[in-house]
Amino acid sequence: MDILFYQRLVLPEELPLDAKQTIVCCDQCGFVYTVVTSPQKDYDRFYSCFSKYADAHTYMGGGTEADVKRQQQTATYITRLMPDKHNRIMDIGCANGTLLGILKQLGYNHLYGIDPSPDCIQNVKRLYDIEAYSTSLTNLPCGSGQFDLVVLSHVLEHVRDVQLAMQQIFDLLTPSGYLYLEVPDASRYADFMFSPMQEFNLEHINHFSQVCLERLLSTWGFRMVDSGQKLVESGPKIFTPAIFATAVKEAITPPGTTDSLPKDELLRSRIQSYIEISQQMLTRIDLNLQRILAEHPRIIVWGTGQLVMKLLSETVLSKAAITAFVDSNPVLQGQSLNGTPILAPMQIVDQPDPIVVSSTLYFEEIRSFIVEEMKLTNLVVGLI
Q1: Would residue 238 count as lying in a domain?
Q2: pLDDT tens digits for 190-204?
């Protein structure tokens, strides 16, 4: 394997994952992935205790308008693929169950969900009265039986051990059962950038292209039925490139051979372009932060997301006198980041320091919230 990029993140103290990441490309197949040292149990704990997907304001999985629209499109696709409403369908990584709820409305009556977040599973049961389990893909419940369709939508990029996950999926499916996979399209990362290294984060471990996805399915004895590119609305007017593949289980046991399968010859160069553009963006942000800190040595940082974790490691923000971090996620409030407390928005009402908004996407919305709703008089500045 060839090392493409190395990064270090500064994490909230309670997060159980390794802050060091090495992104590599496989010499044999061209697949790009992150080498991680944290064991699966730490990832299971992370998604169980620190999941953001139970939040109704989360676009991917939270049940917002954009998420419902996305899941309606997937449900329509499933009805064409499997018109029999008695088919058993398992949604792995179901979040709050939006897709399952839509399928139930369409008349499907054997629906099941899996998600590592107990809060998400409670929402699935409360909102839709659908059988669901709080567990991970690599620790599936015993006795659940086999399924005619397994759905993994924006899940496989999060999985530490892809081969173990595929074994579990293979075993879950009936003979001639269908698998629907959807993941971010790593070959188009550079075309849809709004933040440096946005896809190189704690959660996204695997970076698929269409070639890599189809190669994986062939290795596990699946025959391709359909595949293609799409754009996923991850926020208002914000789109993430994605690929999907529908495949049918044909083999009794996985063939496990890859010698005759094509190598992705392009993904490496496209990821390298993505890294170069990201580093240019980071340089611009660093210069802007230097100007801000020259005028305002003490600041409040709004947001503790993946970008802030990078900036605390790779820019002048690492040396800044940060009096507080602010995050609306209650899971993070009360923790600390780089030795500084993470507060709820209302906890900074008496702090006069300038506020640096860490979101490159939602600066105007956050600034409006601070000034118009919270009525704060602090100076509010962005990263760019």
Answers
A1: yes
A2: 999 989 999 999 999
